[in-house]
Amino acid sequence: MSNITGFQLFWWVILPYLALATFVIGHVWRYRYDQFGWTSRSTELQEKKLLKWGSPLFHYGTFAAIAGHVIGILVPESWTRAIGIPEEAYRWFSASAGTLAAVLIVAGVGFMAARRIFVARVRAVTCHRDGTTPLPAGWDHLAGPHKPSGVDRDVKLSALSSAGCQPGAGRTLCPVVSSDI
Fold first, then answer.
1. CA angle 64, 47, 110 (to 5 degrees)
2. Which has the closest alpha carbon to 118: 39, 51, 41, 42?
3. Buried residues in 88-126 as b, exposed as e (16+ CB within 10 A)
């Protein structure tokens, strides 16, 4: 029934849980051993003109992207079909809204990177982490639909298929992993 490869199972099922576990364990460890070392090292006092444009663009774009992913996962296809929204229209709107969110995020990062590079006062308090930390996440999002070969967008859905879910059926959330994966 399932033609899921080991790579696809790792990429869409195991890796997200490893990332979540790393996130939680890292925060617990950091809280226990470096509780008072957390700082954002704000540069708001050094420069505000570019920050007032870059920060809202980045944050509103990020909130829109998160909301789009949450809505895409939680709203079943049967609901949108029931109110008369065809799947093609849903996908077009999702892609358009996602593209707009991505443009806002990239523009915001551009403004904030320009602050770090071109404003001497901000550059003076910038460390190498400020420039290298966003690179892995940024690359993943800039790559967009161009994931590694052999990884289908609906693979995660078919990898999470259960008796009540049809593999690759679209926006179905399947909470139980099938035993035949």
1. 40
2. 51
3. eebeeeeeebbeebbebbbebbebbeebbeebeebeeeb
- Chain centroid to CA 43: 25
Q: Which fold has domain 43-146?
A: Fumarate Reductase Cytochrome B subunit (1.20.950)
pLDDT band at 136 (very low <50, low <70, confident <90, very high): low
| Rg of the Cα atoms in the chain | 20
Distance of alpha carbon 28 from alpha carbon 35, whole angstroms: 10
Task: Parse the chain into domains and list their residue ranges.
Answer: 1-38, 43-146
- Whole-model pTM above 0.85? no
Dihedral Cα 20, 25, 27, 28, nearest 10 deg: 140
Tokens of 159: 């990898």
Q: Give the count of beta carbons closer than 10 Å to the beta carbon of residue 61.
A: 20
Report pLDDT for 36: 76
Q: Hey, what amino acid is at 167? A: P
Q: What is the pLDDT of residues 21-37, one digit of tens each?
A: 999 999 999 888 887 77
- Are 54 and 44 contacting, i.e. CB atoms less than 8 angstroms apart? no
Predicted local confidence at residue 165, as pLDDT: 41
